[in-house]
Amino acid sequence: MSARPSLPLRLAERFGALAQDAARRVAERGWTRGLALLALCLALFLPGIADLPVTDRDEARFAQATKQMLETGDYVDIRFQDEPRWKKPVGIYWMQAASVAAVGGPEGTGIWAWRIPSVLGAILAVFATAWAFRPLMGAQAAFLAAGLTAISLVLAGEANIAKTDAMLLGLTMVALGAWVRLLTRSGLASAPPPIEIAAGRALDVPDPDAPAAPAGKGWKVDPYHPHAVRAGALPPAEDARRPRPDALALRLILWGALGLAVLVKGPIAPAILALAVLGLWIAERSLAPFRALGFASWGPVLFAVLVIPWLVAIHLASDGMFWIESVGGDFLDKLASGQEKHGAPPGTYFGVVWAVLWPWAPLILLAAPFAWRTRGARATAPLLAIALAWWLIVEATPTKLPHYLLPAAPAAAGLVALWLTSPVAAPRRWQSIAAAILFALVGAALGLATIVLPLYVNGTVSVWGAILAVVGLAFVALGAVALWNAQRRAAVATMFAAALALYPAVLQFALPSLTWGFPSALMASAAAPYEACVGRPADTQSYREPSLVFLQGTGTRLLQPAEAARSLREDPAPLVWIEDRRRDQLDEALNLTGEAQPPALRELTSVTAFNPNRGGVTTLRLLTREGVEPLAACP
């Protein structure tokens, strides 16, 4: 007589059964799948967009450069104050400028307006994943892959930051989807019946796109079936009952998305598509993956029309320096050395992927043997090529940042979705235990930090944030139990629930409450009354974070000690921020000005905060000269 399952396992199984039943009903129709994905995206990506202060340093630099575009009307030459920003193309700046202009312009507008393109890019990535993968694996598995992509921790984070990566992923997946659908236009008119894989088991994945077929042997093995291993045939077309997009339209979508992606972040999207093409070519030994690109069509013309005009304009505006900065100073530097103190040894991403793609990353450990066993399949070959090759590329690159894994996230999610929708044998015991531990460690750290950090820093915690964190931790516990016992259905359901609870708890409540960790926001608020008196933003000597320029205004001057001393001596109404740890530099500069007696200084206000970029607590004081008339009436 077998032992009765524990209460946590029974709860997890019950929740998994309810979630699967709901998902099955949702997945029956295209419009319900779309609504479900949209609701999921909004629940994950909108929390924190307005309440999380602007972050340093990349987001603040992007946002400030966009603000200056709107202030100056120069939409070609990208600058942060007077410093050129030629390391990245112009696409994301144009998108941010459009979103900010649509809500009234930069004056008095919060950072949320700059983040709109990132939110839209993340939503586009989720929908494009479902669209791209449907011809490969069927509607239900593609729907699941899109959902897994949506709940990736890294995508939720990038959706809340005004920079390139979320939009880049969305455009990349649109291009990939158009290429996949161009492949499926040639070949059989419908998907094949179940086939036998190398392990000898028949895999029958329910697919609303495929008609029912009689069981038995003698069926021709189609390598473009989601689980085929052998290769050698052209891909099947989509269900003939649905209208198919015109080939020219698909090629225009493919090359248009590639063009926009290149304008957003250079060659990343073409590289991802190239990995998919090469992976399928290796599996098929056919030129069909290359022919589907449509080099001899109007697609490349559209690509050139989108990309070349700005490249010519920025070449002329920068006297050719754009190529030196973007290719030599950014791209090649990242390949050659750890840029901006972000260097790390190979193997780093294997250690952090469990957090970057949490909550479903531990499922990669379980799905990997299946993905490798079916590596010649229509669905598996391009996805495995993207996921594996991109991982090797970024591991070999000295510069390491967590979001570098993002371009491979949908491909990895697709492989996991194929495994989840396949009746394969249970994973080995050690795999289940390892997956449960990895899932629980990251989830527990996220949930506990949501409660502990605000309590430690502020002495209080948001009630709603704490409630969401506790709910999330409960689902993390249930999910760990499900993984430990190899219950795939229950594990996946609890992963979605944990993400839906913990991400808003972190982004909407915990992080915005940690004002101590955002010095620029505190400084801008403290200096605002004095800036109103003198009619200009305060200067800063040693604290040089770009978020301060964005919050105080483009006119904020980043001064050297001698310049700060000159301002305090000579300006009619000086305002200078100075860190205590650099006060000696200012005092020395004041004593070197040649006058017998340095001017008497008055402290207007001070801020003590944690600077995450420096990794320490800092105290900053806003100084002026004694007897300055415009500041006499200020508080």
Task: Describe this protein with a few key phrases.
four-stranded mixed beta sheet; mainly alpha; 24 helices; 59% helix; 3 domains; two-stranded antiparallel sheet; single chain; 635 residues; globular
Strand order of the largest sheet: 5-6-8-7
Number of strands: 8
Are there runs of 5+ residues with pLDDT below 50, and where? 187-241
> Roughly how many Å apart are the termini?
79 Å
Give the radius of gyration: 27 Å
Indicate how many domains the architecture comprises: 3
- Structural class by sheet pairing and helices: mainly alpha
Helix content: 55-70%
- The 3D shape can be described as globular
Average pLDDT score: 86
Beta-strand percentage range: 5-15%
Instruction: Describe the largest sheet.
Output: 4 strands, mixed
Supply the number of helical segments. 24
Keywords: Cell membrane, Glycosyltransferase, Membrane, Transferase, Transmembrane, Transmembrane helix
Organism: Albimonas pacifica
Subcellular location: Cell membrane
GO molecular function: pentosyltransferase activity
List the helices and strands and how they pair.
Blueprint: H1 7-26, H2 30-45, H3 58-72, E1 79-80, E2 83-84, H4 91-102, H5 112-137, H6 139-150, H7 153-159, H8 165-184, E3 195-196, E4 202-203, H9 247-265, H10 268-284, H11 288-291, H12 299-317, H13 321-336, H14 348-356, H15 361-373, H16 380-396, H17 409-420, H18 429-458, H19 463-484, H20 488-513, H21 519-534, E5 539-540, H22 546-552, H23 561-570, E6 576-579, H24 583-591, E7 601-611, E8 616-625
Parallel strand pairs: 5-6
Antiparallel strand pairs: 1-2, 3-4, 6-8, 7-8
Helix pairs in contact: 1-19, 1-20, 2-5, 2-6, 3-4, 3-22, 4-5, 5-6, 5-7, 5-8, 6-17, 8-9, 8-10, 9-12, 10-16, 15-17, 15-18, 16-17, 18-19, 18-20, 19-20, 21-22, 23-24
